[in-house]
């Protein structure tokens, strides 16, 4: 037990939620005459098209779905339109998407409070609804009534259509471009033609999710018939109602793929109304390079495995490649679950990525000398090995299964069990050290991220996800390598950061890192290895900045993502001959990098290698998460006599992992890319955590833990006693507050997050200055992490309290259940002040806390 353990808050006071500030931007809208002249012809086109479709249905022997996906693009959000959708029979909301950066025109433009023109792009929304002739006729009828009498009072539930018509910028049907443009599927088809020879090509068709099984069966049949007519077939189907996901895995012959690549607009399949997206499969891949510069095969581990009791109840699960189970660093520490017998396809020397991730989860970076976990780690293979013609290994997601179906089944096997396996209730963290390069996050949640959000909320489990890797093939710095090498370290760093900033659209998060309920981990260019530059090989950074290969934010609805950054290893760069590109040196068996276990080429069991990227960062955070769990158990058993309440276990781990995060000296980023210092969260998330600070307190630092469940419109107020005198002296003090929760989600709505929890600080005279990010950004996800400080002399009664109010309101839905949360609060004074004046912050606050009468949080275990 730590000398100064974290302390549980004894009570909170129930109260009403606080008010939120903030208003959407104002904009001008066109006159009714302009809207009428622009939109009336479009409505007529829609009506003509759906009448033609009706005729086609009557003449079709195979059957065509009578429903069509209708797109309405607006300037600004029209929340009142949701009630219209509910009240028009056969009009069904499929999705809505935020549109950023709509250029102003003569009809729509930003205005200030006085109605004057303002510069800037407009916000907008894309609403996609499923309609048929009957529903479209009713919508057109409402339009005609409105243009004849703009002051008309529609019956209850229909008035929201006025706002829609006023703000409507475009109305059309879902198009082949919508189904293909943002999914990178054409690139995937082209690569498949190049490398697959005469083999059929597998890909995913994501269907619009329909409410009833009959509708879903009909959609699947329509698409299956279209695929069959092209000489292909359906391989599998997956429908997950809780996240509104319905997809089929299909295969088509090469000649049909060539038609799709060359002119997909002309292929009938791309015009099938039931299809939302065409997507690649099997894109998650991890190549393992054996460098021509590296004459040795591997390095034998100098690391000793400590002998201590290892619990059979795992806290962390890993979904990854197959590990080398008998490696000296992993032996007797893994529970490998292989229900599909993938071990038979994995020779030992190919078990690279799973072995590395298992090593990092159990030990952390081996050069960091962290004690190994005291519990076994569960690992389920979801990757398979593939070798190219040069015998280079790639471990990748299989292309004969839908990844979301595979992960859904794997996680449910863990948390619920199946006919062959019992649930493993001890697991609280699941590590996902992969990202899908075909699904770069732009503005729409990927199905896999939606799945993880639903699983975490439903089963109270935390997923730790790598943010994704980019720039693996190098960075074009625009100058020769010799010139770059001569630059001062800060000039090198600035040049790289500026390059990444200019390419920011292409290095965003990879699915499923945009998940709102879980932690996405970016890679810091840092490790524990001892490696020095030479004439040929140099480091792009000297200080631990975000790795050039790490994906950067933002997340969904401009939330802070990645949540935190952690050591992802370093690599040297070298010159790429004849170009201004600097490329990474693939030296997996030599430092620098994160030191991990690896299979030997002749099945040696004591080899190590050096790894690099966001996978490593995520795995090490999972290692720290398991250690946080052990600390929490000690705290609860000692202070309550009971174990950690099950519903709060993962939430408390989530809060602990973020609570120690700061930006430190990384304001160099703001200078390099020209942004305000409080906006570098796009580059650093909540910062780099010092998790050891959160595992125990100090003489000058006290951390308190709160937890509970909140109803909509309610709040819990925690009192933080600060029994010190600040009237006559300048004391530097800091207050850090972290709130974590899992929200239910509404997949069809852009708001998505059904519930919104946030805290505000009351009576905060002591630490009035906010550090790090701005107050709006921290509330957009499900983790709010803020740091406040102050040093001015101020009137303060030592018997007074700082109040932390945790609030709850609805977001995407009007009706929400009670929402559970975890809260960590740290108050600290400057260490030198405490030494000079013999102040014991920990003991003073602990004494005050013990005087409070405890109450029990209103949530079941």
UniProtKB/TrEMBL annotation:
<dbReference type="InterPro" id="IPR036852">
    <property type="entry name" value="Peptidase_S8/S53_dom_sf"/>
</dbReference>
<dbReference type="InterPro" id="IPR034074">
    <property type="entry name" value="Y4bN_pept_dom"/>
</dbReference>
<feature type="domain" description="Peptidase S8/S53">
    <location>
        <begin position="313"/>
        <end position="666"/>
    </location>
</feature>
<dbReference type="InterPro" id="IPR000209">
    <property type="entry name" value="Peptidase_S8/S53_dom"/>
</dbReference>
<dbReference type="Pfam" id="PF00082">
    <property type="entry name" value="Peptidase_S8"/>
</dbReference>
<protein>
    <submittedName>
        <fullName>S8 family peptidase</fullName>
    </submittedName>
</protein>
């Amino acid at each position: 037990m730590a000398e100064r353990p974290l302390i549980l808050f004894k009570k909170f006071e129930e109260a009403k939620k606080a008010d939120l500030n903030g208003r959407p931007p104002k904009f001008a809208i066109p006159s009714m005459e302009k809207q009428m002249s622009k939109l009336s012809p479009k409505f007529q086109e829609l009506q003509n098209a759906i009448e033609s479709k009706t005729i086609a249905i009557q003449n079709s022997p195979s059957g065509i779905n009578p429903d069509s996906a209708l797109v309405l693009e607006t300037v600004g959000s029209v929340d009142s339109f949701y009630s219209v959708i509910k009240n028009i029979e056969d009009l069904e909301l499929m999705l809505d998407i935020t549109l950023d950066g709509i250029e102003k025109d003569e009809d729509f433009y930003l205005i200030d409070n006085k109605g004057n023109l303002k510069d800037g792009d407009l916000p907008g929304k894309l609403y996609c609804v499923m309609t048929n002739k009957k529903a479209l006729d009713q919508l057109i009828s409402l339009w005609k009534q409105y243009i004849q009498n703009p002051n008309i009072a529609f019956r209850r539930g229909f008035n929201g259509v006025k706002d829609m018509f006023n703000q409507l910028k475009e109305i059309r049907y879902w198009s082949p471009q919508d189904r293909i443009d943002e999914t990178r599927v054409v690139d995937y088809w082209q690569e498949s033609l190049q490398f697959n020879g005469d083999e059929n090509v597998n890909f995913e068709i994501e269907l619009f999710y329909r409410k009833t099984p009959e509708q879903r069966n009909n959609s699947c049949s329509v698409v299956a018939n279209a695929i069959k007519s092209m000489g292909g077939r359906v391989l599998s189907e997956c429908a997950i109602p809780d996240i509104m996901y319905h997809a089929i895995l299909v295969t088509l012959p090469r000649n049909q793929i060539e038609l799709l690549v060359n002119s997909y607009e002309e292929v009938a399949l791309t015009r099938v109304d039931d299809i939302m997206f065409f997507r690649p499969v099997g894109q998650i891949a991890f190549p393992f390079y054996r460098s021509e510069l590296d004459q040795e095969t591997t390095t034998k581990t100098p690391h000793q495995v400590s002998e201590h009791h290892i619990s059979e109840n795992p806290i962390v699960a890993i979904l990854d490649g197959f590990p080398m189970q008998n490696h000296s660093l992993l032996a007797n520490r893994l529970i490998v679950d292989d229900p599909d017998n993938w071990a038979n396809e994995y020779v030992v020397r190919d078990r690279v990525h799973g072995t590395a991730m298992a090593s990092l989860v159990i030990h952390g970076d081996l050069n960091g000398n962290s004690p190994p976990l005291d519990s076994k780690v569960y690992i389920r293979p979801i990757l398979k090995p593939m070798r190219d013609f040069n015998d280079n290994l790639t471990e990748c997601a299989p292309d004969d299964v839908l990844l979301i179906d595979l992960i859904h089944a794997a996680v449910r096997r863990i948390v619920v069990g199946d006919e062959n396996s019992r649930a493993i209730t001890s697991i609280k963290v699941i590590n996902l050290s992969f990202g899908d390069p075909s699904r770069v996050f732009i503005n729409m949640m990927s199905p896999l991220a939606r799945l993880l959000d639903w699983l975490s909320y439903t089963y109270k489990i935390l997923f730790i996800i790598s943010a994704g890797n980019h720039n693996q093939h190098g960075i074009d710095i625009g100058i020769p390598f010799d010139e770059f090498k001569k630059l001062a370290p800060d000039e090198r760093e600035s040049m790289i950061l500026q390059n990444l900033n200019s390419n920011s659209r292409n290095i965003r998060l990879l699915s499923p890192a945009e998940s709102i309920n879980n932690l996405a981990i970016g890679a810091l260019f840092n490790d524990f290895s001892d490696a020095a530059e030479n004439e040929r090989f140099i480091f792009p950074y000297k200080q631990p900045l975000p790795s050039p290969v790490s994906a950067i934010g933002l997340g969904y609805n401009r939330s802070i993502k990645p949540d935190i950054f952690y050591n992802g290893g370093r690599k040297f760069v070298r010159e790429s001959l004849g170009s201004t590109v600097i490329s990474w040196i693939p030296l997996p068996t030599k430092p620098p990098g994160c030191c991990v276990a690896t299979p030997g080429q002749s099945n040696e069991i004591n080899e190590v290698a050096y790894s690099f990227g966001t996978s490593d960062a995520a795995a090490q955070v999972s290692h720290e998460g398991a250690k946080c769990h052990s600390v929490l158990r000690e705290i609860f058993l000692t202070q309550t006599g009971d174990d950690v309440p099950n519903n709060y276990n993962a939430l408390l781990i989530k809060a602990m992992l973020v609570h120690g995060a700061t930006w430190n000296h990384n304001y160099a980023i703001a200078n390099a890319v020209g942004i305000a210092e409080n906006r570098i969260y796009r580059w650093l998330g909540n910062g780099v955590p010092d998790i050891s600070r959160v595992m125990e307190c100090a003489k000058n630092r006290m951390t308190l833990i709160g937890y509970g469940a909140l109803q909509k419109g309610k709040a819990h107020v925690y009192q933080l006693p600060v029994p010190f005198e600040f009237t006559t002296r300048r004391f530097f003090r800091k207050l850090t507050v972290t709130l974590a929760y899992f929200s239910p989600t509404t997949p069809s709505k852009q708001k998505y997050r059904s519930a919104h929890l946030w805290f505000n600080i009351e009576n905060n005279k002591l630490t009035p200055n906010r550090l790090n990010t701005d107050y709006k950004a921290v509330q957009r996800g499900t983790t709010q992490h803020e740091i406040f400080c102050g040093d001015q002399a101020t009137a303060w009664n030592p018997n007074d309290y700082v109040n932390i109010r945790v609030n709850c309101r609805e977001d995407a839905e009007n009706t929400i259940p009670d929402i559970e949360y975890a809260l960590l609060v740290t108050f600290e004074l400057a260490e030198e002040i405490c030494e000079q004046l013999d102040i014991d912050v920990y003991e003073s606050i602990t004494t005050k806390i013990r005087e409070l009468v405890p109450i029990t949080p209103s949530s079941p275990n």
